[in-house]
Amino acid sequence: MAKTSAYQLQKCDVRVNTICPGLIETNMTGETFDYARQRGTAGKIGQLNPLGRFGVPEEIAQAAVFLASDDSSYVNGQNIAVDGGLSASHPVAPGRWV
């Protein structure tokens, strides 16, 4: 959608980008995090992510602030993954190179 919209809105002074978040602890994912904490497996949340952790809302907000700023004036039609590298690491096999 970002790529098509950026092309269709060319010369309109409109930039279109998307933020693709990874596993972020929010109200929407709260039950998953709570369940893991109850089971004592909270340390495993985000373990397959190359950064080895889950994200927080502030990290998504920082990407949004960047895209809204003049610092990103030449960024257009991009899908920006803010997922700690998870999308760059598929397929994942813990402890192995696949």
UniProtKB/TrEMBL annotation:
Transmembrane segments: none annotated. Signal peptide: none annotated. InterPro entries: NAD(P)-bd_dom_sf, SDR_fam. One of its GO terms (molecular function) is oxidoreductase activity. Keywords: Oxidoreductase. The keyword Oxidoreductase applies. It comes from the Eukaryota. PANTHER family: DEHYDROGENASES, SHORT CHAIN, ESTRADIOL 17-BETA-DEHYDROGENASE 8-RELATED. Belongs to the short-chain dehydrogenases/reductases (SDR) family. This is Uncharacterized protein.
